[in-house]
Specification:
Shape of chain B: globular
Helix content of chain C: over 70%
Radius of gyration of chain B: 21 Å
Structural class of chain C: mainly alpha
Number of helices of chain C: 13
CATH topology of the domain at 93-258 and 282-308 in chain C: MetI-like fold
Distance between the termini of chain B: 47 Å
Strand content of chain B: 15-25%
CATH class of the domain at 93-258 and 282-308 in chain C: Mainly Alpha
Structural class of chain B: alpha/beta
Number of strands of chain C: 0
Number of helices of chain B: 12
Order of helices and strands of chain C: HHHHHHHHHHHHH
Shape of chain C: flat
Largest sheet of chain C: none
Number of strands of chain B: 12
Oligomer: heterotrimer
Order of helices and strands of chain B: HEEEHEEHEHHHEHEHEEHHHEEH
Strand content of chain C: under 5%
Largest sheet of chain B: 8 strands, mixed
Largest interface: A-C, 44 and 49 residues
Chains: A mainly alpha (about 300), B alpha/beta (about 350), C mainly alpha (about 325)
Chain lengths: ~300, ~350, ~325
């Protein structure tokens, strides 16, 4: 009898506490129609990313030039028209999603890793360590995000990996401060004290007890930072400091199309809409998650 | 009768206020009747959530709209029908005819304005002084409440809690209002400071001849300051009377419960008897008398109908079915019992 | 107060030096040989050596760095490796243009978003909340260079209302300022709105209402000044981000400011100019953060008290 009761209790807790909470989050998230729009856009982009080569082959369509077909207006064959080298703009925008997401998501996670390390170490240890790390962050904070990224690109040269690194580092300033505050607020809670008291090592405490409790604000931040990274990637490429031609990067495409902008505005509009939609999808999802994961953070 | 009306400064009749929220309706006040004669000090006693502050805010016509709705009732202050006034008119009454001192002196002063300016603000508005005159007057008010004039240019963060409460009192009295509402003015203060603030209020009352409407849950303060007491429960006045009526001839089971849960130095071995159960949920009031789920004297009628006010003496009214047919007092105040046992 | 400002300025100097150190190191150890780029086909080991000596880059790293800092203290940012022009001169020519659009952009964003934020706080379900949401959807997600190009396309090329480039007239300032402000309007009005809502809920607002203060004065005198703190600190941050945004905006609108200078010199790998631009930008950001702190002290006597005498408080 007692055994049955215990199992039941456990099952009860599992059902009603954890899943209940998750269900509640899903419910809040799905009742937010803006967040759902964001999710739908995101899924469309995801399909584009996965099936880009199936829809339009990279080598034969997206970067191969066809001088005969240059600057064609949008038609059934070329949905977004063709550019000044006769490449199909739709195919290029499609493949651009791969590059853009690769860089911005990559930079998002790398930045999160760097900032997470700096922030949690500073927040957990406090004192001298905190002081030193935060002064370093203060120094970086003196340089506007994009200028920091530009300086790094200037130093290392523009490659995809360098771009990811540059963007990641440029986002660390704000992110590591956020992580630090979150960690500091959790650090002094009883269960962390308890973990320390029974002699758990710091490197177990930080990820297991602290970061897990900061996960909600961090996920929200990550989505919003990815949205921001999409814009930064495009911006840097537009300035000629990121991905360069003939790779179909959106910002780079806009830069190329600029000279012909007056007569062929669709060349500027199509990649711009792509940037806008992908950034807005992450922003909407981020806002929705914020409301769902932590109602306290609600604006 | 006419004479009586003139003596009456404040008359609250059958006041019903509900707060309509998204999912529920909070029935904050359900028929409050309070009469305050000029020059008296009235105590309004009750647990948190009984509707004391709502009553006070209604007198100021400061119920937050659109959630707060005045369903029914009338408030007459010095012959003025408060609830029918528009915003402009009410702004010229607030702080002038009636003013209010709030509970938490730490947060009730604006941190970015110096105290002189905050006191002077009301003077500029209501006494039509220019800024300079008002600041001089504010300095004098500060002197009166025992703070040097020179500190008028200091900011709230430079004062202690007790001093801030004094500043708030000065602010309340600045325009010499006829009615001063004090919403738990000493709850947030240390005991020694409490005594000082109460002493100050008593002195000021003597000097300014202000009528004071004191909201508190502390019977000690009531005993010290008040002439008449109103006991509130679940948005209605369940017992009212003079100080002796309430303290020595307690009639309502709830009031009895309040007294029974107070420690008493003279009968230290007396057991404290808390009122069982929790205070009512104002979104879901029981039918009949709101106190019946916690009452030790319930009868069938209690569960069905709200008792009307029954006068047990000229000054003493109680809303309880116990007194429908008799003026006998069936209550057994524990301290009386204890006294008998000890003797 | 002045003592505090001077103290803050002195504290800023090591931070600026650290910024220069970081960027200097980054660029110094960057791969690639500047002499190859400059000499091109005429490159020989001897010519490279001469050039290195001439540019002062044959010295050890720390010496170079110290010399650079010494130069900056005297107002000398070195010379451009490519045009051999003084970087100080290049900055002096371009900085006023950047500051010019910065000022109009900051004024524009404040004038638009603070009133909207206040109104959205006062009337929660009105059109103003909608505007705030629209700002955050469009302003935050649309790339500014793209919006800029679309504006040029529409207003300059098609309608011919506004000049597409340059800074010759006031009308030329409109589009750059709009593009520069757009992405910050959302954050600014949202912050103003939420801090205003918070401030309107405070007890002292109730006290003021009980005093009979008029609604207009409650909002403008009692609530706004308390609500402005987060907004001011955000404005400080936004100005910094706008300095960064100048790179894009100046490039699109053909304004010869500091941002465009930076982009062009990175593209040309003109290291000294890059370094000069980044240093100058960092100095600007540092100065702005001091201005923000002073504004804080002006707004909140509690903060002022901390600065002036280390926190005087009477019991």
């Amino acid at each position: 009898m007692a055994e049955v009761k215990r199992v039941n209790k456990r099952a009860f807790l599992r059902e009603h506490r954890k899943d209940g909470k998750a269900l509640e989050m899903v419910r809040i998230f799905s009742s937010n129609y803006l967040a759902m729009i964001g999710l739908v856009i995101f899924l469309i982009i995801l399909i584009a990313v996965i099936f880009a080569n199936v829809i339009a082959d990279y080598n034969s369509i997206a970067i191969a030039t066809h001088p005969a077909d240059r600057l064609l207006p949008p038609s059934a064959e070329h949905w977004f028209g063709t550019d000044d080298l006769g490449r199909d703009v739709f195919a290029r925008v499609l493949h651009g999603s791969r590059i853009s997401l690769r860089i911005s998501v990559g930079a998002g996670f790398l930045g999160l890793f760097i900032a997470g390390t700096i922030g949690s170490v500073a927040g957990f240890y406090g004192g001298v360590v905190d002081n030193i790390l935060m002064r370093v962050i203060d120094v970086l904070a003196c340089v506007p995000c994009i200028v920091l990224a530009i300086a790094m690109v200037a130093a290392f040269g523009a490659s995809e990996f360098n771009l990811i690194l540059a963007i990641a580092v440029s986002t660390t300033v704000g992110l590591s401060r956020t992580v630090r505050t979150a960690v500091m607020s959790v650090r002094n809670m009883e269960y962390v004290e308890a973990a320390r008291a029974i002699g758990q090592s710091t490197w177990k405490i930080i990820p297991r007890h602290i970061l897990i409790n900061c996960i909600a604000p961090i996920i929200v931040h990550l989505t919003i930072i990815i949205a921001c990274n999409i814009l930064t990637t495009a911006e840097l490429s537009f300035l000629g400091l990121g991905i360069s031609a003939p790779t179909p990067e959106w910002g780079c495409m806009i830069a190329m199309a600029r000279t012909n902008m007056r007569s062929y505005p669709y060349l500027v509009i199509a990649p711009g809409v792509a940037i806008f939609l992908s950034a807005i999808s992450f922003n909407l999802i981020g806002d929705g998650l914020r409301d769902a994961l932590d109602p306290k953070l609600k604006r | 009768m006419k004479n009586h009306d003139q003596e009456l400064l404040l008359n609250i009749e059958n006041l019903h206020i509900h707060f309509v929220l998204k999912k529920e309706t909070v029935k904050a006040l359900n028929g409050v009747d309070i009469k305050v004669a000029r020059g008296k000090t009235i105590g309004l006693v009750g647990e948190t959530g009984a509707g004391k502050t709502t009553t006070a805010l209604a007198i100021m016509n400061m119920i937050q709209k659109p959630q707060g709705r005045i369903i029914d009732g009338k408030i007459t202050l010095d012959g003025i029908d408060i609830l029918s006034k528009n915003r402009m008119e009410i702004e010229s009454i607030r702080g002038n005819l009636v003013s209010m001192i709030f509970q938490d002196p730490m947060s009730s002063l604006n941190p970015v304005l110096n105290v002189g300016e905050q006191i002077a603000e009301g003077l500029v508005l209501h006494k039509h002084m220019d800024r300079k005159e008002a600041l001089v007057e504010a300095g004098e008010l500060l002197e009166k409440i025992g703070i040097p004039r020179s500190r008028a240019c200091d900011y709230p963060h430079q004062f202690s809690g007790g001093m801030r409460q004094r500043v708030l009192i000065a602010m309340g009295l600045a325009c010499n209002p006829k009615l001063l509402i004090a919403d738990e003015p000493t709850t947030a203060l240390d005991v020694t400071i409490q005594a000082q603030v109460l002493q100050l209020m008593r002195e000021l009352k003597a000097n300014f001849n202000t009528t004071i409407f004191m909201i508190t849950h502390d019977f000690g303060i009531v005993a010290e300051m008040c002439d008449e007491v109103y006991v509130m429960y679940a948005g209605t006045v369940i017992e009212r009377g003079t100080l002796t009526d309430i303290f020595d001839h307690t009639r309502h089971p709830y009031t009895e419960g309040l007294f029974n849960s107070l420690p008493d130095i003279e009968h230290r071995n007396r057991e404290l008897i808390p009122i069982h159960g929790r205070t009512v949920d104002p979104t879901n009031l029981p039918a009949g008398c709101p106190f019946w789920p916690r009452c030790n004297y319930i009868c069938d009628k209690c569960r069905q109908d709200m008792p009307p006010e029954i006068l047990v003496s000229d000054t003493h009214g109680v809303k309880c079915w116990l007194y429908e047919n008799t003026s006998e007092n069936p209550l057994m105040r524990r301290d009386y019992v204890a006294e008998e046992n000890n003797d | 107060m002045w003592k505090f400002v001077v103290k803050r300025l002195l504290l800023t100097i090591p931070i600026i030096i650290a910024v220069i150190f970081v960027v200097f190191t980054l660029l110094h150890f960057a791969p690639g040989d500047i002499t190859m780029q400059l000499l091109g086909t005429k490159w020989t080991p001897e010519a490279a050596e001469t050039l290195r000596h001439e540019l002062g880059i044959d010295q050890p790293f720390m010496t170079q760095f110290i010399n650079y800092i010494k130069g900056i203290v005297q107002g000398n940012f070195g010379i451009s490796y490519i045009s051999r022009e003084s970087v100080t001169n290049m900055l002096a020519v371009s900085m006023p243009n950047t500051i010019y659009i910065l000022i109009t952009s900051v004024v524009l964003s404040i004038v638009i978003s603070i009133p909207i934020g206040i109104l959205a706080a006062l009337k929660p379900n009105s059109v103003f909340s909608g505007i705030t949401t629209a700002f955050s959807l469009i302003g935050v997600s649309a790339p500014s260079f793209w919006i800029g190009l679309l504006l040029i396309l529409l207003l300059s090329l098609r309608l011919k209302w506004l000049p597409a480039s340059g800074l010759e007239s006031f009308s030329a300032l409109i589009m750059p300022s709009v593009v520069m402000s757009l992405s910050h309007l959302a954050a600014l009005s949202r912050t103003t709105r939420s801090s205003m809502i918070e401030s309107l809920r405070m007890d002292y607002i109730r006290t003021a209402r009980a005093k009979g203060v008029k609604k207009k004065d409650i909002v403008l005198k009692h609530a706004l000044r308390n609500a402005l703190m987060p907004t001011v600190s955000l404005v400080g941050f936004i100005i910094g981000e706008m300095i960064g945004g100048a790179t894009v905006v100046e490039t699109i609108f053909g304004i010869s400011g500091m941002g465009r200078l930076l982009v062009e010199s990175v593209n040309k790998r003109d290291i000294n100019v890059v370094l000069g631009c980044v240093t100058m930008m960092a100095i600007c950001v540092a100065v702005i953060s001091i201005v923000t702190d002073v504004a804080f002290a002006y707004l909140d006597p509690r903060i002022k008290a901390q600065y002036v005498s280390g926190g005087k408080s009477n019991g």
